[in-house]
Specification:
SNARE binding, Four Helix Bundle (Hemerythrin (Met), subunit A), Rossmann fold, single chain, cytoplasmic vesicle, zinc ion binding, 22% helix, alpha/beta, 1026 residues, 15% strand, Sec23/24_trunk_dom, phosphoprotein
Length: 1026
């Protein structure tokens, strides 16, 4: 239920309906939904084995992210950071959660320790009913004094979230605000800056934190605060590296008085995790990505497929410009669903194919309006009136709905698939099943590290697990093998041969495929020959001295092989070094750290040569997707090598300073998942919108040859395409706005299909309605992608300033137009955007926008392309990592422990913590941990005997060891890439790397702390308002 609507009308697609033969769906459309279990299902995006309960408060559940943590300290000599994946600290980043949408108003309080009385309006606490009027909540920010009563807002807005007014704040022009008495009736300000009756103690907000050096312990009962002064002009800008010591102590803000991501996540779980999210009502804001919930499709696509920055969009472009809130959708067309949710139904209309609008070509969907007794329909996107073909005709009921609406997925569901006819296929003929080609670097580095032997051994068993359709006994995918260094070796593995045959192509400038028959084969038919080949490859090249490699000709060869076989497919490339051999696509080492913070820094993110873009374009035309596994010991120019994977919809995996003993588990886990995942090949995606808005910009891993079609040689269930919309006309509040995403692709079995996702949004004429229906996690996902693309063309400082300005404009517009009048010293945030500053600060401090000295150029380029196609849950935990205390919750508890805020102040030296961000996993051990805990986990008798940098916990038969290892497995299962564990001891040299992920603190590279950044945002907002 949308809390913005007092009592939603009967969902348009939710009336009771008979169960039709052949189209049964439990609890679907108005029938009782009791069959759907309210809890216990896997991570958003896929099953998590053995993961039963709804996650406990504070645990961020996000789907796959990317690369795992890096290699151990022993790798320092590689010229990379002491840790394999990125350079040390290279993914320090932020948002792990989302922001409280307009949630059920009864759920506002956060903590339990009252700080100071503040006025809130009773309307806020009515669990249902009309939208609450704005209550300006205030908190103790920056030592500013709590303000007095606030008048109600003019337009009704969701709970505004106010951070306190300064007494006598000096600052940007304008008279100082009047002083107010802080003795007001009303609810107490809660520990995290929200208001309402005090709750009992919250998990992980216990006694004063040990080691809370900066801010002291938490306050006791409320006491009148002495008026302190805060000069906003003295607040350091986030770019400044050092604060003078006296300034550090000037504004001792209680960190618990500012909005807490952990609390917002926990509240959303408590309020929205138990009920299924039914998609029948237009413009509903879904639960946060960190909440475990069940989706019931009743006419709008599930938030697992599409999430929007706002579910209520301004009617006019002027209003949109005024608010500056980007209107965007993050679309994940092939997202994996938890087992409790049905995959989209496949609809077969036979030779006539799917029914479409004659003018705009939109596909039939639940929003189309049937008229004239069902003989014609009016398109909901362009209003064109179309004839209904005789074979599709059906009578209408008394409400104007077709009587078979619930028999047909395309008339009652938000997401479904059509079988495509031959008209939707290349050259008007149905496609062949796709092929996988494994292309293995056999240069000196790859052989010496043990990579080639490990890979060949793994492929013998992995080829049994190629993706297959539905109940097929074996996969239809054919496989081929190539090895290379300065030349390429092709292998004939035809089933009739006793031994594989090798053919060498040394003319890499004019690449061709020396054989057709016997190169791409069926695994089960050629099993013996393939096994023989994989046994021979490591031996054949065991004594190689060849150190140089080629790269572009390898991709060219794979593409030509697919072209000759007339099929789409994927190349799996395993590559170790900068391609310096004489050949097309040859690169030079151009790594130059001196360019950082100069106008030429952008060249570090740009490809060295245009040759790879041209090659990528040819690959896309052939439906050839490239997945690249990199094993560099030094600079390999990821910015250039990742161009083809990026433009073909592929993935890049990076294992710096690869060592078999340290990294094999991570590499093999990533490889297995990559080979087994379901992929759509040779895909084209188009997003249509109803009149008034149109798609103007796209972000992700794909190629575009025109302004509307997103072309993807391959698309898997982890990849998203982010689309930005702009107004081209006025929208209508009554009719709302519609999106339809249509993806045409070839399935793993070679079947051509269309997957359709539809979503209806509300439109508003009041800014307050826009701000009440935003989704901060999606907003941050969009802003990060926008910024990460910006660094290709603009200096990094310009990109950072643009982000800060846009955020300040969004919040200033709310303050000016939606919040009730209050003193200028008060920072007022919209309820559903109160985490925007903390998350934005995490993006600004990330390695791409503010690298530390230890972050390599390759690390930055790698992270930049990774974030480009992340979904909302992945960016969420990537930018604001999860920090889980392990000894606070009972050992017998099967649920994940509640998270705590990502700050050093939250660490107790008597505890052990797990920190994860989707790519990295750290186990931090405090120096005063009980000896029994050390013994149970590490099988050593004291803290000093624990090996720092350890990447595997010993398998011990005791409850604590089982619990911690089980938790690590469950976290890994939720992510798309394997996270390698690194054990970090307090006060150890590795601790600097770990602290890089404590994103609420000041970073070594000069990033502001959360508190400082909030003060800086306040200053920016005041300047805009004055």
């Amino acid at each position: 239920m949308n809390v913005n609507q007092s009592a939603p009308p009967v969902p348009p697609f939710g009336q009771p309906q008979p169960v039709y033969p052949g189209y049964h769906q439990s609890g679907y459309g108005g029938q009782p939904g009791s069959t759907a279990p309210p809890t216990s299902y896997g991570a958003y995006n896929g099953p998590v084995p053995g993961y039963q309960q709804t996650p406990p408060p504070g645990v961020s559940r996000a789907p796959p992210s990317s690369e795992a943590p890096p290699a151990s300290t022993a790798q320092a000599p590689c010229g990379q950071a002491a840790y394999g994946q990125f350079g040390q600290g290279d993914v320090q980043n932020g948002p792990s959660s989302t922001v409280q949408m307009q949630r059920f108003p009864g759920s506002q309080p956060f903590g339990s320790v009252p700080l100071a009385p503040v006025v809130s309006q009773p309307a806020v606490l009515q669990p249902f009913g009309p939208p609450p009027t704005s209550a300006q909540v205030t908190a103790q920010l920056a030592g500013m004094q709590i303000s007095g009563a606030v008048a109600p807002a003019l337009p009704p807005v969701g709970l505004g979230y106010a951070l306190p007014p300064g007494s006598q704040m000096t600052g940007p022009p304008g008279p100082p605000p009047p002083m107010h008495s802080s003795q007001q009736p009303g609810y107490q300000l809660q520990q995290n800056g929200s208001f309402g009756p005090a709750r009992g103690p919250q998990p992980n907000y216990g006694s004063p934190y040990p080691g809370a050096s900066t801010f002291g312990s938490q306050p006791g009962p409320p006491q009148p605060l002495p008026p302190k002064r805060l000069d906003p002009d003295a607040i350091p800008s986030p770019q400044l590296n050092e604060l003078p010591p006296q300034q550090k102590t000037r504004h001792r803000i209680d960190p618990d008085a500012i909005p807490s991501p952990i609390q917002v996540i926990e509240d959303d779980r408590n309020n929205r995790g138990s009920e299924p999210f039914v998609t029948g009502v237009r413009g509903q804001v879904p639960p946060l990505v960190t909440t475990n919930f069940l989706v019931k499709d009743q006419g709008n696509a599930s938030p697992r497929y599409i999430r929007c920055t706002s579910y209520n969009i301004p009617c006019t472009s002027d209003m949109a410009k005024q608010a500056q809130v980007p209107l965007a959708a993050v679309i994940k067309p092939l997202a994996r669903l938890p087992p409790e949710e049905a995959s989209p139904y496949v609809v077969d209309h036979g030779e006539s194919g799917p029914l479409r609008c004659n003018r705009c070509k939109a596909y039939m969907c639940p929003f189309m309006q049937f008229i004239e007794g069902g003989r014609r329909f009016q398109c909901c996107f362009c209003s064109c009136i179309n004839d209904v073909p005789p074979q599709y005709f059906q009578h209408l009921d008394h409400t104007g709905k077709r009587v078979d609406a619930y028999d047909r997925p395309e008339l009652s569901l938000g997401s479904y698939e059509f079988l495509a006819t031959v008209d939707y296929c290349k050259n008007n003929k149905f496609p062949s099943p796709p092929a996988f080609i494994f292309m293995i670097d056999v240069s000196y580095n790859a052989i010496r590290s043990g990579l080639v032997r490990l890979l060949c051994e793994e492929l013998k068993s992995l080829l049994d697990f190629l993706p297959r359709e539905g109940g097929a006994e074996e996969s239809a995918i054919r496989v081929g093998f190539v090895t290379y260094n300065k030349v390429l070796h092709f292998y004939n593995v035809k089933s009739s041969l006793a031994q594989p045959q090798m053919m060498v192509v040394s003319d890499v400038a004019d690449m061709f495929v020396p054989l057709l028959d016997g190169f791409l084969v069926n695994v089960s038919e050629s099993r013996a020959v393939i096994t023989s080949l994989l046994d021979q490859i490591p031996e054949m090249f065991a004594d190689t001295r060849e150190t140089e490699t080629v790269f572009a000709p390898v991709i060219q060869a794979g593409m030509e092989a697919l072209k000759a076989a007339e099929c789409a497919g994927k190349l799996f490339l395993f590559h170790t070094s900068l391609p310096i051999a004489e050949a097309p696509g040859k690169l030079k080492n151009r790594d130059d750290r001196k360019l950082i913070n100069t106008d030429k820094e952008k060249t570090l993110f740009q490809p060295q040569t245009g040759a790879y873009q041209t090659l990528a374009k040819e690959c896309v035309a052939q439906g050839c997707c490239v997945d690249l596994f990199l094993f560099p010991n030094q600079y390999v120019d990821v910015a250039t090598l990742s161009v083809v994977p990026q433009l073909t919809g592929g993935s890049v995996y990076k294992y710096a300073c690869f060592q078999v003993e340290n990294d094999q588990e991570r590499f093999l886990s990533d490889l297995r998942r990559d080979v087994q995942k379901v992929v759509g090949f040779d895909a084209v995606m188009r997003v249509r919108t109803s009149t008034g808005i149109r798609a103007v910009d796209f972000f992700g891993a794909f190629y575009m040859s025109n302004t509307t079609d997103v072309e993807l040689a391959g698309l898997d269930g982890d990849k998203t395409v982010t689309v930005e919309f702009k107004h081209d006309d006025r929208l209508n509040e009554e009719s709302g706005a519609l999106l339809q995403c249509a993806l045409l692709y070839t399935s793993c079995a070679g079947q051509r299909r269309l997957r359709i996702h539809n979503l209806a949004l509300n439109c508003c004429t009041q800014l307050a309605d826009l701000y009440r229906n935003c989704e901060t996690d999606t907003l941050i996902n969009y802003m990060a992608k926008f910024a990460y693309r910006g660094v290709l063309n603009s200096p990094v400082k310009t990109v950072r300033d643009t982000l800060i300005t846009q955020c300040a404009q969004i919040l200033a517009c709310y303050r000016k137009n939606c919040a009730s009048p209050s003193s200028a010293g008060q920072l007022i945030l919209p309820e559903c955007m109160k985490l925007l500053p903390v998350y934005l600060n995490c993006v600004l401090k990330s390695d791409v926008l503010q690298p530390g000295a230890e972050v390599t150029t390759d690390d930055r380029a790698y992270v930049r392309q990774l974030v480009t196609s992340m979904d909302v849950a992945e960016t969420n935990v990537f930018f604001y990592p999860r920090l889980l205390p392990l000894t606070k919750s009972p050992i017998e508890s099967a649920t994940e422990p509640p998270a705590v805020r990502a700050s050093e102040e939250r660490l107790s030296n008597g505890d052990i913590y797990l920190l994860e961000n989707g790519l990295n996993l750290f186990l931090w051990v405090g120096a005063s941990v009980q000896q029994g805990v050390v013994q149970s986990l590490f099988s050593v008798s004291s803290f000093s005997q624990i090996t720092s940098g350890l990447s595997v916990l010993p398998v011990l038969d005791n409850p604590l060891s089982k619990k911690v290892r089980g938790l690590i497995d469950s976290l890994r299962a939720q992510r798309s890439r394997y996270m390698k564990l690194i054990v970090v001891k307090q006060e150890d040299k590795l601790e600097m790397l770990f602290k890089h992920f404590l994103v609420e603190d000041k970073s070594l590279s000069g990033g502001a702390s959360y508190v400082d950044f909030l003060c800086h945002m306040h200053k920016e907002i005041r300047q805009l308002l004055s």
